[in-house]
């Protein structure tokens, strides 16, 4: 499988994690707005496949480590999220870090961010991989349903 295909698959997996956690986030609502899929070598963000995601204050980011061989976790450096919840994997103590110690695949969780800023995190496993959550102030812009428009046909 090519690198481009792998990135697309990982991005889709991350989007599926976010969709499962919160089917939709409308303007002014909080919920999971982005996600990271953890791989053996990097954090893959759901928005563009990079190690960055951008959300709005009050929203959450989901993290999942579905497959791999290297222990990882999500440990924030200077600024910490408002709260984190581990939703799968062994309970190794309070979070963050998520999970408490680097662990093999099978763990997941979410972190909520109420304060606008850039939050930098790393894995404390053998690979010190970086990731970034950018939190914007205010509410997300409104989303409009994308339904096909029916052309108007004049009556004769």
UniProtKB/TrEMBL annotation:
It comes from the Bacteria. Residues 1-26 form the signal peptide. Keywords: Signal. This is Uncharacterized protein. It comes from Solirubrobacter deserti.
């Amino acid at each position: 499988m090519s690198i481009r295909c792998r990135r697309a698959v990982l991005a889709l997996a991350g989007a599926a994690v976010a969709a499962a956690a919160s089917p939709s986030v409308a303007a002014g609502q909080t919920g999971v707005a982005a996600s990271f899929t953890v791989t053996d070598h990097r954090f893959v963000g759901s928005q563009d496949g990079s190690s960055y995601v951008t959300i709005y204050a009050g929203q959450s980011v989901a993290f999942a480590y579905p497959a791999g061989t290297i222990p990882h976790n999500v440990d924030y450096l200077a600024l910490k999220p408002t709260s984190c919840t581990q939703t799968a994997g062994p309970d190794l103590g309070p979070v963050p870090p998520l999970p408490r110690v680097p662990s093999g695949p099978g763990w997941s969780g979410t972190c909520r961010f109420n304060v606008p800023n850039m939050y930098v995190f790393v894995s404390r496993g053998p690979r010190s991989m970086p990731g970034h959550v950018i939190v914007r102030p205010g509410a997300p812009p409104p989303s409009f349903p994308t339904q096909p428009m029916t052309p108007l046909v004049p009556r004769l």
